[in-house]
Amino acid sequence: MTTPIWITPAGFLTTVTQLTNTSTQIVASGANVSYKLISGTLPNGLFLSATGSIYGRPYAVGETTRRQFTVRASNQSGVTDRTFIMDVGGQFGPVWVTPPGTLGAGLFNSHVVLNGEIVDYQLQAEELKLPDGQQLRYFIADNDGQLPPGLTLDQYGRITGQVKDLLKIDYQASNYGGYDDEAYDVYPYDHVTIVAGEFESTARYIPKLYVFYITVTDGALTNRQKFSMLIEDPNDLRVDNTYIDVDTINYTADADYLLAPEWLSPANLGVVRANNKQIIPLNVYDFNPFYGPTTYDWTTPTKNIDGSPSIHPPFFNLDPNSGVLYGTLPYQPAFNLTYNFTVWVIKTDLQNNNQTTSARTFSLTIRGQYDNTVNFISTGTIGVVNPGQVSELSIQAQFTDLVTPVEYKLISGSLPDGLTLLQDGTIAGQVSYNSYTTFDLNSSGYNSFKLDYGLTTIDKYKYFTVEAGNIYQNGATTASFKIEVSVLNTKKYTGVYAQPFLPLDQRRAFSNFVNNQYTFDPKIMYRPNDANFGIQQKIKMYLEFGLEQTNIDVYFTEALANYFTRKKFIFGSVEYKTAVTPSGDYIYDIVYINVIDTASNQTGKGPVGSITINGQTVHPNNIFNMRKTLEAILINGDQITTNEYLMPKFMQSLQLDGNQLGYIPVVPLCYTLPGNGAVVVEKIAQNTFDFKTIDFTIDRFIFDNNLTDPGAKYLMFPTKDDFGNNLGQSLSYINTSTDTNTALETETGQFIYLE
Question: Per CATH, which fold does 95-167+206-236 belong to?
C-alpha cells in the first residue's frame, strides 16, 4: 500500500451556483483513501464527505465569492495535502415572470390586439436580490425586432399607446394576374374573387405578427426573452374570413370586429357640492366612430360589477346620447353621501345592428353644507419616547363637520432621529441611540456641571410644526408640538430575530395571503401604515427584543457556536392577544401564529444546557438555550444586560387569564384595533392558506445593530452533526442589506461585509 497521490489538480476546482444542489468529487490514488478538511473553509452550505465528495446547497451570496481550503487524503501508509479554490456564483440575474410567446395585451387580456386599440400592458420580471442601488429596467436591443406602430416600451416594462398599423393591401393593381400585367415581387397571388362570372377586386386586410425580444437588466446581468404581438383588423373578425382555424389559441369565440368603446372617465368621479347645479361628462374612446352611434344606459344595469346594487345619485339624469350626468342638487345637511352605480356604453353597427357593450361602476360623493375647519385633538407634548423603543405616538385632528380623512405634513422643525411623520398622522420608527447627548457625570459631577443653572436641555425635546388638511386643503391649519426623549440609561440595545429565506413560490404565497383584504381588512388595522404594526409582510420571530449592544466579535462565543445551529421550526395555532397599558388603556390586538420548537417541551423549555448521549456531549439548539446563551455573554468580564421594557406591549400586558405573557416565540401576522383580533383569527380559519407549505428553516439570526459596524448583521450558524461536531463552517456575521462583496478572515470567525 502506498501513500495517496493526488489526481485532482491543485488550485481552482470549480464554480458552483448559489441555492442550487451540487456535488464535486476530488480524487487521490491509493487504497482505502479518506478525506478530511484541515484548514480554510468550504462555501457555506457545502460539506466534504470522507469519500472526497464536496456536496450540498450553497447559501445565497449575492455576487461571486471565493473560498480556499486544504484537504488531507490519508490511508494507513501516510497522508498528503492539497489546497483547492472554489467559487460560488452569486447573482442570479433577472427572472421573467411574464411567459414568452404572444402577449395577452388586447382587451380583456386577449392575445389578439385590434388595430386602433389602446394598449396598456405591464411586463413582469423579478430578481431574488438586486444589486445595491439598482432596479430592473427593460429595453429592446438593436436588431431585436420592434413593437407594432403606435406602441412604446418604457424602461419599467410598460407597453402603452394606440396601435396605428397599416393592414390593408390594395389588390386592384391587376385583376387577371397575367404575366405581363404585374410585378411578381410586389403583389400577392390567389387574390382574384369571381362574382357572377366577373372578376372582382377588393381591398383585403391581413393580420401582422410582430416578433421581438425584450431584455431586462439589473445593471449587471440581463435576461432576453422572445415575445410577439398579433395585430388584427376588426373587419377580419367576421364569420366570412377564410384563414382563422378553429384550433387557434389566439382567437376566442367572443372575439368581435366591433370594439366596445373604452372608458376614459375614472371610476371615482370625486366629490360634488350640494345646493348646486352639476354637469359631469362621462367620456369614452370610440374605436369605430363611423359604424354607428354610441349610447349610454344606467337603467338596465341594476347591479354593480361587484354584485352590489346600482344606486343612482338623486336628482341626477343621464343623457343617453352624450353620456353627460346633469342635475340640480338641493340643500343637503352637513354630511357626505356616496353613491355607487353602473353605466353601460353601447356601440351599434347600423349596417347589421350588431352591438357591443362595456360597463363601468362609478362612485360619486355628494357633500353637504359644512364647517370645514380642522381642529387638532393633539396638543403640546405628543409623548415621551426612549431610544430604541418602537414609537406608538401619533397626531390627531378632525374636521368640525366634514367626515373625511385628515392628512398631515411636517412643515418645519424636526422629529427625533429615527422617527417619521406619516401622512395619516402616525409617528413611526425607533429613536436612534445617537440622537441624544450625555455627559460623563463621574468626571463632571452632578453638582459641578451646570448650564444656565439647570434650565438648558440638550437633545431632550424636539420641536416641530404640522399642517393638517385634506387632499383639497380644505380648512388646512397648523399647530406646533414637541416630543420628549427620555434617556433612562446610556446603554444601547439591539433586537435579535430569525427570518427564513424562502424560495420565490413560498414568498408569493405568503404575500398573497397577508394582502388578502377580506382576511386582513385594512380598515380594522392598528397603525396600518406603520411597518412595525399593521399587516406584517415578512415572517419574523424575535429571540431578544433588547440585548445590550457590544462589539461584533464579543457576540462570537464558544457557547453560541454550540447552541446556534441550523434548524427548522413548525407553525402552530393562530391566536390573538391584547395589548394594554399599565393604566388600563386598551391599545390593540395582535394576531400571531405560534412557533413550535421541536427541541423544546410543551412549556417551551428544555432540555436545559448540554446533555450526554452515549458518552458524547450534545448541545440542544432549542430557543431556551439560544436565549440563555445570548444572555450569558460577558462584556469586559460583566454579564451582558437585557432590557425587558423593549418587549412589545402585548408581552408585557396582563391577559384575560390574569397572567403576563412574557417572551413567547411567535410570528406576528397583524395588529388590529381593539376588539378585532378574534375577527381576523376567524377569517384566517376560513382561508385556504396552509402554513405547512412555508419552510421555516433558519440558518442565521439577525442583529439589528452593534457597536463595531452599525447596521443589521446576520449571525450565520455553523453546521454541526447530531453530536455537535463542526462540519467545516465557522460562525460568521453578514450585513443584511444585500448579500454581496468581500470576505475577511479573523480569529473570531468569518466576517463578511456586504456593503
Answer: Immunoglobulin-like (2.60.40)
Q: Which residues pair with 553 in a beta bridge?
A: none
pLDDT band at 720; cut points 50, 70, 90: low
C-alpha pair distances (Å), 702 with each of 274, 352, 428, 466, 698? 57, 70, 21, 36, 11
Contact assessment for residue 59 and residue 19, using Cβ atoms and an 8 Å cutoff: yes
Architecture of domain 5-89: Sandwich (2.60)
Across the range 82-109, mean pLDDT stands at 84
What digits encode the pLDDT tens for the residues 308-317? 999 999 999 9
The Cα 544–Cα 705 span in angstroms is 12
Residue 197's CB is within 10 A of a number of other CB atoms, namely 5
**Residue among 685, 546, 666, 525 nearest 604 (CA):** 666
Three-class SS of residue 553?
A: helix
* Amino acid letter for position 232: E
Residues in the chain, how many? 755
Amino acid at 265: S
Mean pLDDT of 219-248: 71
- The CATH label, of 2.60.40.60, 1.20.1250.20, 2.60.120.620, 3.40.50.2000, for the domain at 374-485 is 2.60.40.60
Residue 263 pLDDT: 85
CA 587 to CA 392: how far, in whole Å? 10
Give bridge partners of residue 303 from the DSSP assignment.
309
Residue located via cell numbers 495517496: 4
Q: Of the CATH numbers 1.10.3720.10, 3.30.70.920, 2.60.40.10, 3.10.360.10, which one belongs to the domain with range 262-367?
A: 2.60.40.10
Task: Name which of 47, 8, 51 is nearest 32 in CA terms.
Answer: 51
Q: How many Å apart are CA 267 and CA 288, to the nearest integer? A: 23
Instruction: Report the 10 Å Cβ neighbour count for 462.
Output: 20
List C-alpha distances in Å: 45 to 54, 574, 722.
10, 32, 17
Buried b vs exposed e over 558-580: b needs ≥16 C-beta within 10 Å?
Answer: ebbbbbbbbbebebbebebbbbb
